[in-house]
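call fold target=Release factor glutamine methyltransferase
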Amino acid sequence: MPCIEDALKAAITELQSSGSESPSLDAAVLLCHVLDKPRSYLLTWPDRLLTAEQYQAFQAVLARRTAGEPVAYITGEREFWSLPLKVSPSTLIPRPDTERLVELALDKAPSVPASILDLGTGTGAIALALASELPDCQVVGVDIRTEARQLATENAQNLHLTNTRFLNGSWFDPIEGGTKFALIVSNPPYIDKHDPHLSQGDVRFEPVSALVAEEKGLADIRHIATLARGYLQQSGWLLFEHGYEQGEAVRELMKELGYQHVTTEQDYAGNDRVTLGQLK
């Protein structure tokens, strides 16, 4: 059997050939997953031989990755906002760009205890990040998929975050009438159904219902922005993550609905990513 160093080198070569954008990272994460060891273990014991069982298991997960399956679905975990989250094929994989939405929401969060709503919560990543930073606030997450709500609830329990709760339903449907929120955040489906990116990379394995929206990707954003006016408290903020080419369209949509101070902020790569507006 090969040693850790040789197994990693061979895996990196194989992943490069399959088109992985991060072959070294993928190989290391997958081997750590198989060995149930931290990344430091690979660096400390490069000459340690793998057992036959370990090598076979590594080859199995490597084959899944070279076929295009996302690493997060293989390992069942992804870190977001420094929080380890369980993920599954029933939810989107939390991405670093979405942390920009969390940053902006924290900037608009009131300094007093308040209620926050996360629509289309998936793994609960956004809701849990906000709950971890705002322990005096109550954060509600909603998702139409039962599996997603269960996963978000499990993540909250694992992180010992008790100021969250997750509901099952379509957008505002499970929210009791008359409930008001200081912040409403959402990373809704915003990709046009004809977008060629849907057949590329990790997205191929993610749930289409969490990715695609009508009206060139704007239908769900319009629906949420329209109804949110009945659920935001006075001076409350609505924040959306959206596609890098949708900033202008989302700004116009929100302005037409009466939101004030509407602005679009960029992600870490300098692309339009989050649009926000205030209800006066």
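return ok
The two ends are 67 Å apart (CA to CA). The mean pLDDT is 89.
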